[in-house]
Amino acid sequence: MAQAIKPVPQADGSAATLRKISIQQLRVGMYVHKLCCSWLTTPFWHSAFAIESRQTIAQIQASGTTQLWIDLAKGVDVDVDVGMAAPASAAVPDAIDDCPAAIFRFAPVTPAPMADEMRRAALLLDRSRQAVLSMFQDARMGRAIDMQAAMPLVDEIAGSVMRNASALIGLARLKTADNYTYMHSVAVCALMIALARQLGLDDAVTREVGLAGLLHDVGKMTVPPAILNKPGRLTAEEFDSVKLHAVAGHALLQGAGGIGAIALDVCLHHHEKFDGSGYPHGLKGEEISLYARMGAVCDVYDAVSSNRPYKAGWGPAESLRHMAEWNRGGHFDEKIFAAFVKCLGIYPVGTLVRLKSGRLGVVAEQKQQGSLLQPKVTVFFSTRSLTYIVPQLLDLAQPGVGDAIICCEQERTWGLSDIDRFWQAPPGASRDG
């Protein structure tokens, strides 16, 4: 039942006539005055807007909103039949319609040790590369994206992230030049899911956000390979060509059909910046949807922390440091970036660190509970003797270890290479400090 009408004084002396309704009563033709939810869970950057399609209703449902205020002076009431049913072409996307927030739930999982999840994540990444390659080729040819293949892949990635996020996210960072575009999409999918869970988004929205990460760079299929894989700096004309991939990808997904509003939005706007200096539309602040703001952070992190044809990737912690510097210039939403750092950890897996003992180590595991400053670290090098030592896995949170991280280091400073082997296959745990 709709609740009583509430007159609300406006700045111009008039009074808005508002009614509070349930999400089930929302219909095309209404005018939303305010959603009864946190800004972090809404896909809309305007606080008030008209309901012009069933797709908009689906977005609100997917956000987890259960109640909202409508303005009767600007739209229809709950008992008014205005014959505005959306045509079949505007039907709610299957991915949202079939899994509303109140119904869809990920399958329950049990947290897994890093070593166990690493084995599963490696197999999942092998399967994912071919699946994403096939989906991108379908989009390039104008064929419909196979959602029966895409959504189960998102669900598998989500399951791995929920069991132990560090395993899949850490492995997905290790790419080769020939599979960068496809594995970047898998990595951003995993990062988007991890960030969505950190922000407290419900399972239905998290699933859609994961799909958005998987498909966000499909427009790269329209960029000439010679430009995409160029080992040197791009010319201004070449960079302009690359920048077209956001609009091109959005058009590919729209043309293929069956893709939800969240994925379409992230594909189009993941290169927008909070200060308005991004592309393709120069959106600023909350003009950029929550999901596109999430996509911007996840996309940049994976890009700068991965080896690409024209640049060696930074280490995980170094990548976060550079992003924090850029954020002082207004690149990202501060709240989203802070949540992202929290879900990855201050020292993400793969980070090279120097300990109080003078040893170098690589972060091998972020514990799912406890201090972000005390991960598990595999020590393998002495800065005093400048030699490799027998690797040891230290849990810095354990009593009696007697060591601690002083700072992050860079491989080139110490002439190191291939340090990833120390976290991919860490030695047996030791409490000897």
Automatic annotation (TrEMBL):
Location of the HD-GYP domain: 159-356
Alphabetized Gene3D superfamilies for the sequence: Hypothetical protein af1432
Superkingdom classification of source: Bacteria
One function term, GO molecular function aspect: phosphoric diester hydrolase activity
PROSITE patterns with a match to the protein in the record: HD_GYP
Signal peptide coordinates: none
InterPro entries documented for this protein: DUF3391, HD/PDEase_dom, HD_GYP_dom, HDIG_dom
The name this protein goes by in its record: HDIG domain-containing protein
Organism this protein belongs to: Janthinobacterium psychrotolerans
